[in-house]
Specification:
Strand order of the largest sheet: 1-2-3-4-5
CATH architecture: 3-Layer(aba) Sandwich
Distance between the termini: 54 Å
Number of strands: 5
Radius of gyration: 16 Å
Domain N-acetyltransferase: 5-148
Largest sheet: 5 strands, mixed
Protein name: GNAT family N-acetyltransferase
CATH superfamily: Gcn5-related N-acetyltransferase (GNAT)
CATH class: Alpha Beta
Oligomer: single chain
Shape: globular
Number of helices: 4
Number of domains: 1
InterPro entries: Acyl_CoA_acyltransferase, GNAT_dom
Organism: Geomonas anaerohicana
Length: 148
């Protein structure tokens, strides 16, 4: 029997689980990065920053992070989701959708009506997920150049 999924604000005790969830999808450790994210998003207490953890039976199985930004390229305030991970063992169970819906509500409460993200064009799973959440190409286009 599947245990209930809860979506909660991240707490300092979730740090190791977040690092482990991130590690499952990458080839490099980012322990220092995650400590900095926890400091800025968990310990700061700011309402324009949201770090949520999905838990099943008290065990973290996913997380989503976002914030309100308003200064890039003259954009009015909007929500940005910059991290989303669900454990491969529980994917396709609606956890990502639950987290995305909750972060959208939190960002709306913070005063924005638009949410944005960026996705690697080769990340078909992530791109498919966000499109399934109703996200579409927005008014800004990312441009990049490799510099030597």
């Amino acid at each position: 029997m599947n245990q209930q999924i809860t979506i909660e604000d991240a707490v300092q005790g979730d740090l190791e689980a977040v690092i482990a969830l991130d590690r499952a999808g990458l080839k490099e450790d980012k322990i220092g990065y995650w400590r900095g994210v926890f400091q800025r998003y968990v310990e700061s207490g700011r309402t324009d920053r949201v770090f949520l953890v999905a838990k099943q039976g008290g065990t973290p199985v996913g997380f989503i992070i976002g914030e309100v930004r308003a200064w890039e390229f003259g954009s009015p305030p909007c929500g940005w989701v910059f991290a989303l991970t669900v454990s491969p063992s529980v994917r396709e169970g609606g956890i990502g959708k639950k987290m995305f819906d909750e972060i959208c509500q939190r960002l709306k409460q913070a005063g924005v009506s638009t949410v944005r993200t960026m996705v690697d064009i080769d990340s078909k799973l992530t791109l498919s997920f966000f499109r399934g959440m109703g996200m579409r190409t927005g008014r800004y286009i990312e441009l990049e150049k490799q510099i030597d």
